[in-house]
Write a structure and sequence with these properties.
Strand content: 5-15%
Structural class: alpha/beta
Number of strands: 15
Number of helices: 22
Largest sheet: 6 strands, mixed
Strand order of the largest sheet: 6-5-7-11-14-15
Length: 545
């Protein structure tokens, strides 16, 4: 409001409009609800009168979106018409076209249009998103575009699911995630993997061959689990070799209740760390776990792909608590079903094992001893380095060795209320302890196929707009590691010594890393509920695809 007063004092109407629209988008109470749409319309018309067509177009788009949220259907359609009338005068239609179609679908929902017509509009928008996302994206547009993209594909998935078009709904949801990955992580991803647009602007049908490609990677008796939020429900897709089924659990009613649930889910790791056990898991998530365990009881889960903040849930421990045997859960957590198609292209070549350690636990246990216990199973092919420095870690990650790191990991509460980047406590050249952000010590290209982080909070991460995680372990995976084993919260050093001793023996015997991980979980499951939720639930295995 201070900036608004300054702008008023110098009579800059254009800047005043920008501030007012920003306040409206932020939900500020400084502009009353009955003034929101008139304010945006005046600003849009003023931009059009001065010949600033792109700005006028943008403001009409914003106005249509606000009208949809406010339930002002008639004014929303008017704003849509105003925006569309300007498209021929734009130098190029960037992301406005598909955004307008998403808004149009929302207005059609409120005006009780037929499901077929709404799906037709959303499929046309999906086709446009698919084509346009490969175009250069200005950094300042990233959040808006990525958020709009996800909302569009989730809305399409919801309508397809309502019509019992389950495979098409799954494809729509996963395409949104994959395109988000293309925006946020790998701009060449669309060209390499999503080589064909499954959406046809002139048809309400969806080409599900990309789902079929993913199913071709699943063997008989196995399933992949996809967990997502498609309001008004939480939806779980169970993808098998020959069919896709699903079930849903209703979300609580009202935005306030949904926001409260979201915060509860995000707090799960912290609550598990304070030893709240099963009580740290919200009731609705317990129900999801129970029903997944029930539906997948005859299958082996070979892949798990949670959406957004559902990564905060220790799904393996939850399924175990609901009676599923460890042997039924040889999965690593991934980030998109469609990214699964890249698995065969990833090479794994181990030239040896590098154990790195520095620091000591509160009980005085030297972390280098943990690295040595793990590495000893590999004989002459393993080396152990104490007093681990940033250079040692960087050089090891740039090799094709399996890297085992046992150090202190630290995250702090950030100013935004989230978590700060992961900090490794390493040795400097003088032998003193220094805090180094994980993202500074990880090389541009991680050649190590397997990275094991026995470091607290290495698995504490948040989800970005494109539904790809931001944090220490995900960053290592993003840079090239095929697998990264990490910890969600402060891990018990007595437990990790026993766990990694067991897992090292399995890996040295030639066991696949996923199988070795799950076997060690099973071997250390003593039936104690506190051990399940306090130790076993802390560990997670992430995979690149």
């Amino acid at each position: 409001m201070e900036a608004r007063g300054i702008i008023d004092s110098i009579g800059d109407v254009g800047q005043r409009s920008r501030i007012d629209i920003a306040l409206i988008q932020l939900g500020s109470t400084q502009i009353t609800p009955d003034q929101r749409l008139p304010t945006i319309r005046r600003a849009a018309e003023a931009a059009a009168e001065t010949g600033d067509t792109p700005l006028a177009f943008l403001r009409f788009c914003i106005g249509a979106e606000i009208a949809e949220k406010d339930g002002a259907v008639e004014e929303g359609f008017r704003m849509l018409g105003n925006a569309r009338s300007l498209i021929p005068s734009l130098e190029w239609d960037d992301y406005g076209g598909p955004r307008l179609l998403n808004v149009e679908a929302g207005l059609m929902e409120q005006s009780a249009e037929s499901a077929d017509e709404i799906i037709r509009v959303l499929v046309a928008g999906a086709a446009m998103w698919f084509d346009r996302i490969a175009q250069p994206l200005p950094p300042e547009d990233f959040n808006t575009v990525s958020s709009s993209l996800h909302n569009h594909f989730r809305r399409l998935a919801r309508h397809l699911l309502n019509q019992r078009r389950i495979e098409e709904a799954l494809l729509a949801f996963e395409t949104g995630r994959a395109l988000g990955y293309g925006v946020e992580v790998d701009s060449e991803f669309i060209q390499r993997v999503l080589k064909r647009n499954p959406f046809d602007a002139d048809s309400p049908s969806v080409d599900i061959s990309l789902v079929r490609d993913a199913q071709a990677t699943i063997v008989e008796g196995e399933v992949v689990i996809v967990i997502c939020a498609l309001p008004p429900e939480l939806v779980v897709f169970i993808v098998g070799q020959d069919e896709v089924t699903h079930f849903a659990v209703p979300l609580p009613e009202g935005n306030e209740a949904i926001d409260e649930l979201t915060q509860e889910i995000k707090q799960i790791p912290q609550r598990l760390e304070t030893q709240e056990g099963a009580d740290a898991i919200p009731a609705i998530i317990h129900e999801l776990g129970r029903r997944i365990a029930e539906r997948a009881s005859e299958f082996t889960i070979c892949g798990l792909y949670p959406y957004s903040f559902f990564h905060m849930v220790p799904w393996r421990a939850l399924l175990r608590a609901n009676g599923m045997d460890w042997s039924r859960m040889p999965f690593a957590v991934g980030f998109s079903l469609l990214l699964r198609n890249q698995e065969a292209a990833l090479s794994v070549h181990e030239s040896g094992v590098v154990g790195l350690g520095y620091g000591a636990s509160r009980s005085g246990r030297d972390f280098t001893d943990e690295a040595r216990v793990f590495a000893q199973h590999f004989g002459a092919s393993a080396t152990v380095q104490s007093e681990c420095t940033a250079k040692m870690l960087r050089d090891s990650l740039a090799s094709d060795s399996l890297v085992f790191l046992s150090v202190h990991g630290v995250v702090d509460e950030s100013e935004e209320g989230g978590m700060s980047p992961l900090m490794f406590l390493l040795s400097d050249r003088a032998g003193d302890t220094v805090r180094i952000p994980a993202e500074e010590v990880v090389p541009e290209s991680v050649l190590s196929p397997y990275v094991i982080l026995s470091a607290c909070y290495s698995g504490a991460y948040r989800m970005a707009w494109g539904d790809y995680p931001v944090g220490g372990a995900p960053f290592i995976v993003r840079r090239g590691a095929r697998f990264c084993l990490c910890t969600r919260f402060a891990v018990n050093s007595e437990f990790t010594v026993r766990f990694f001793d067991d897992m090292g023996a399995s890996l040295a015997a030639g066991t696949d890393i996923i199988i070795a991980f799950v076997k060690s979980l099973a071997n250390l499951d003593n039936g104690d509920d506190r051990n399940l939720w306090g130790n076993l639930a802390c560990l997670e295995l992430l995979r690149r695809v």
